[in-house]
Amino acid sequence: MQAFLGQLLIGLINGSFYALLSLGLAIIFGLLRVINFAHGAQYMLGAFFAWLLLSHFGLGYWPALIIAPVAVGLVGAVIERTMLHRLYTLDPLYGLLFTFGLALTIEGTFRYLYGASGQPYATPAALAGGTNLGFMFLPIYRGWVIVFSLVVCIGTWLVIEKTKLGSYLRAATENPVLVQSFGINVPFLLTLTYALGAALAALAGVLAAPIYQVSPLMGSNIIIVVFAVVVVGGMGSIMGAIVTGYLLGVAEGLTKVFYPEASNIVIFVIMAIVLLIRPAGLFGRDA
Length: 287
Description:
two-stranded antiparallel sheet; 11 helices; 72% helix
């Protein structure tokens, strides 16, 4: 039972990162129709920003939780305005190739500057230690990651689906000419969308820094799994990205208890089964 609950906890932690990252991917694809292969690199940038703020400026975890996503979001906004927006009218393959090249460039730059080995990042003192729940020992930081990521995911969904800003974003991608005729700055909304997706990836990177080592390879190690999560949930489905991220994280964790040899491929097996039964994904809309 302790092994089961321990792996369930690990699954929820992994699911938290899958949900945050796939949420950012779903927003960018759902609203911009861009397959953002640079998402893993933006996740890595968030972790490195947190590490650099601590090692060079003495700013710890809590300031980094705000500064790093904002900084990466601004970088994403510059990329969207200067390069990515030129590809919207072209085949989506061009966006995928561009963001793939961008990811390789960012990762290669950080590997050159800091090497491939990871950098440690200390758990914030306020969240250090753990608590005994009776049936298991829960590290406080792990619990914080699960709860905080869930709050961020639900809050983002509410903004996109239930607010006027969200309706503007959705309308701007469906019929930009009509929306612009009402005096709404459509290019700014598109830039804001990409910046939001990049900021969510960076936020996941900051949350991951105390758990995993800050490494230039951390983005490339997780991005393929995140794409699988998005496909299972339904490309562009925001709620699908959130729900599927947690469910597949738990499925991966529990597989390590019952059949450890399959834990590295269980998500891809589930993806294959879902695509056979429902090609649009669990929450996607059929064409």
